Amino acid sequence: MKKIAFLIFLLLIPSISHASEKKIYVAKIEGTIGRGTENQFEKAINIAEENGEALIIKLSTPGGMSNSMEEIVKKIENANVVVIIYVAPSGSYAFSAGTFILMASHIAVMAPSTTIGACQPRILNPMTGLPEKADEKEINAYATMIKSIASFRGRNESVAEAFVKENLALNEEEALKAGIIEFIARDINELIEKINGTVINLLGKNITLNLTDAKIVSIKWGIRDALINYLSDPQISSLLLIIGLFGLIFGFLTPGYHLPEVLGAIFLILSLYGLSYIGINVAGLLLIVLAFLFFIVEALTPTFGFWTTAAIITFIFGIMLLPAEKAMHEMPTEWFTSFRIASIVVAIFFTIFFSYAIAKAIKAKRRRPSIGENELVGKKGVALSNISPKGQVKVMGKIWQAEADENIKEGEEIVVVEQKRLVLKVRKV
Asked: Per-residue pLDDT tens for 254-302?
């Protein structure tokens, strides 16, 4: 009996040691902050909360959607594990929404030659397609938010406020001196060494980080997170909406192909999925619908480009006004430029296409009707049956009722001498 108990004990030793093994989870997050980033933070925090001592997020971002940033800040502040935001590697930055996330972390760390700050909210000027400083009400709201986050983590409130009001940016040395970050570290190993033994307030309780001999575990991301981030980008979701609407309209106007309306429906659903996280400006949506109506009016009542010109202008304004303004407050500056270029390119593409479609419509409208005319007179064909005096012939690839003043045998070559609506009078060649 003792031998059996001893064997069971030996078998349990690996599982006991495995359960007691300390783990530090490390996740890498880069690019524009969106819904996908929000999912990544949630996934990483949930994994680390189960059996991790700490979670390190290597962050490099130019900024992103403000609503996603706010959700990420909430997740960090309510996490039951120590979250360390590490702006790395060297040459990286965490601007706009990224700085808010850094300020919310339990421990903020930067690698050498990195930058943070520049959090002033921006709006899109539909006349130029370029970013502009938001109004004072919005600036004050974001300044109060970041001050509250800084106060909660015991960081410099006045510098945090300057990030928003003055668009201040700091390198790692300046941030450390200003009391915005706690450490500067060249790599993960140095970071762990520096934060080991740090006392952290975690959900109201002071804990001491004990990371000695802890195992570093990397968290990997799937395709789904990247896809959601793309779909929740206001630029991509807006363009998908345009393509989706266009596909549906084109499909309904050209029945029988099915592909345009199927693709249109798919793109429309994907765009609505992305826009559900961003929010829609009703004015932008109405302008886009109005632009399509202008194109249709041009096709039905050609006015030599008047309605097309109105549609192009309305279309560009509609695209740029479509995403909810608040979502774009913390988007990177270069994003606004790319959004403007993409909007113009799409408008030009649709203008060319609709101009072609309108030209074809005008040509078709001016074409004389062919039914009842003698356009088949002189065309040759073949008798499909004996004609005596009536039968069937095949002319121009179509089957017609025919009559003749002579007997014509099946298979003989014929020529049309007269067309009486849907009946052809023929003779032998």
From this structure: 655 677 778 888 888 888 887 777 777 778 878 878 887 887 777 666 6
CATH number of 21-221: 3.90.226.10
Whether 101 and 73 have beta carbons less than 8 Å apart is answered as yes
What three-state secondary structure class fits 232? coil
Closest CA to 24 of 73, 80, 84, 74: 84
Domain residue spans of the chain: 21-221, 233-366, 380-428
The pTM (predicted TM-score) of the whole model is 0.71
- Calpha distance 386→232 (Å, rounded): 69
Give residues with Cβ within 8 angstroms of 387, minimum separation 6: 393, 402, 403, 404, 407, 408, 414, 426
Q: Which of 29-33, 184-188, 337-341 has the lowest mean pLDDT?
A: 337-341
Provide the pLDDT for residue 132: 78
Q: Which residues are catalytic?
A: 96, 137
- In this prediction, residue 366 carries a pLDDT of 56
- Integer-rounded Cα Rg, in Å, for the chain is 35
Task: Find out whether 179 and 151 touch, Cβ atoms under 8 Å.
Answer: no
What is the architecture, at CATH level 2, of domain 380-428?
Beta Barrel (2.40)
